[in-house]
């Protein structure tokens, strides 16, 4: 399962302070994963989010898509 030979997508860490979990998902799945997690576990509150350290680095790539990094 973990031996993906064609995974060139950067993995993005998603952290949820409430659940105390961190999971890494491919960049294209970040927005959907965060949204689903928050909907299912936190009544739609924006609890889970991209790791702030990483978010800085990929802000240019995903800021628009995520809508989580508005300044
Ligand atoms: Zn959570």
General description of the model:
This protein has 71 residues and is α+β, with helices and mostly antiparallel strands. The protein has two helices and three strands. The protein has one domain (11-64). Strand 1 and strand 2 form a beta hairpin. The longest helix is centred in the C-terminal third of the chain and has 15 residues, at 52-66. It has helices at 30-41, 52-66; strands at 11-16, 21-26, 49-50. The chain has a three-stranded antiparallel beta sheet. Bound molecules: zinc ion. The site of zinc ion has 8 residues, from helix 1.
Question: Which key features would you list for this structure?
Answer:
71 residues, alpha+beta, 3-stranded antiparallel beta sheet, globular, binds zinc ion
Distance between the termini: 38 Å
- Helix-strand pattern, N to C? EEHEH
- The count of DSSP E runs of length 2 or more, i.e. the number of strands, is 3
Give the C-alpha Rg. 12 Å
Rounded mean pLDDT is 81
Helix percent reads 25-40%
Low-confidence stretches: none
**Class from helix and strand fractions:** alpha+beta
Organism: Natronorubrum halalkaliphilum
InterPro entries: DUF8149
Protein name: DUF8149 domain-containing protein
Short précis:
This protein has helices spanning 30-41, 52-66, and strands spanning 11-16, 21-26, 49-50. By secondary structure, it is α+β, with helices and mostly antiparallel strands.
Note the topology.
Elements: E1 11-16, E2 21-26, H1 30-41, E3 49-50, H2 52-66
Antiparallel strand pairs: 1-2, 1-3
The protein binds zinc ion.
Domain DUF8149: 5-71
Organism: Natronorubrum halalkaliphilum
Protein name: DUF8149 domain-containing protein
């Amino acid at each position: 399962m973990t031996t993906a030979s064609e995974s060139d997508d950067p993995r993005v860490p998603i952290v949820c302070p409430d659940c105390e979990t961190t999971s890494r998902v491919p960049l294209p799945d970040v927005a959907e994963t965060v949204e689903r997690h928050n909907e299912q576990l936190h009544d739609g509150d924006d609890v889970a989010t991209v790791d702030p350290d990483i978010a800085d680095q990929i802000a240019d790539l995903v800021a628009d898509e995520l809508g989580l990094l508005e300044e």
